[in-house]
Amino acid sequence: MPKFTVADIRAIHDLPLPDLLFRAQQFHREHHRPNEVQLCSLLSIKTGGCPEDCSYCPQSSHYDTGVAREKRLAVEQVVEAASRAKAAGATRFCMGSAGRGPQNGEAFESVLAMVRAVRGLGMEACITLGMLTDEQAQLLAEAGLTVYNHNVDTSREFYGNIIKTRTYDDRLATLARVRKAGIKVCSGGIIGMGESIDDRCAMLATLSNLEPPPESVPINALVAVPGTPLADRPPVDPLELVRMIATARILMPTSQVRLSAGRSGLSREAQILCFLAGANSFFFGDKLLVTGNPDVEADQKLLRDAGMRPAPPIH
Ligand code: SAM
Ligand code: DTB
Ligand code: SF4
Asked: For residue 15, which of 197, 259, 206, 154 has the smallest C-alpha distance?
């Protein structure tokens, strides 16, 4: 028996917004510090030329988006970026690599060295490399990886409309391997791709019924990139993002819920509603993987004006 059915989740999601926010706040205040947000820094360690066909992704080689294929960064470049991020207040460093999954050999050794180096700086290390084998998950665990990001992205039913080169079960199998290796799980999804509200609730059902649920749940609003099949999707209504975050907070009270891609299109007020709804982290820095993010100065001012502060490192 699943803990939550899609109908249970839909009933929460559709509550009057004041009731939804109040319930989310109750869970949020019980398990988290409501005036703190964790600052995460994101770096693309290998950009572009990806063989997968994810319809939202500017890095897929199936679409002409102007994102060039680049060489993998050197370990020193990653250390430099992580040190800068740490000095600016980030406590988690997230590395993203375009591709279906990592190749064994020199490239994977270099990724392991990046993980060790980030951990050596005293930061949480997160990485997203696509599908993993058991052995790769084990090696990442041994290198000290804190958490692996692998999003389910949407509902099982809608998934085939967005990605044809792999299945929902492939995604779940990698998440199970990560768990088995003893690495924490970061998994969430994207709204604004043309999915229904029931698809969003079904995605939250998949995540919240995992045992245990992911420790970290990124909620992305689609960044519609010219050249991708989703280029013409209208922007997400910020109140729909607020509902999604609040529902995730209620279903997964102890997880970090992350306000991820799509902040550039949000007003300061909408972002503060997301924090009230239970988001307790965002990406800090002028760039996501290849698209833009709000300026660091603007984010610092937002936190100051709201009387909020960056969360200290968790040990
Ligand atoms: N290749 C790896 C994979 O697919 O697992 C890792 C990199 S991929 C860019 C990581 C996640 O970023 C995707 O699963 C998706 O949820 C999110 N993402 C990518 N492009 C996006 C976009 N245009 N808007 C919002 N989220 C996006
Ligand atoms: C996640 O859920 N969002 C981040 C991270 N995990 C790797 C990626 C967002 C990418 C946004 C579009 C881009 O810049 O490529
Ligand atoms: Fe490749 Fe990941 Fe982009 Fe999909 S989301 S095209 S797997 S980089």
From this structure: 197
CA atoms of 282 and 268, how far apart (whole Å): 13
**Residues with catalytic roles:** 50, 54, 57, 94, 126, 186, 258
Q: CB–CB of 150/166 below 8 Å? A: no
The position carrying tokens 């709201």 is 306
Mean pLDDT over 184-205 rounds to 98
Nearest-angstrom CA–CA distance, 69 and 60: 10
Ligand showing the shortest atom-to-Cα distance for residue 53: 3
Q: Is 206 helix (H, G, I), strand (E, B) or coil?
A: helix
CA gap 149, 29 in Å, rounded: 25
Q: Which among 174, 202, 173, 170 has a CA at the least distance from the CA of 189?
A: 202
Residue 128, pLDDT score: 98
Q: Considering every ligand atom shown, identify the ligand nearest to the alpha carbon of residue 214 and give its number.
A: 2
Q: What local confidence, expressed as pLDDT, does residue 313 receive?
A: 80
pLDDT digits (tens, 9 = 90+) for 212-262: 999 999 999 999 999 999 999 999 999 999 999 999 999 999 999 999 999
Q: 3-class SS at 116?
A: helix
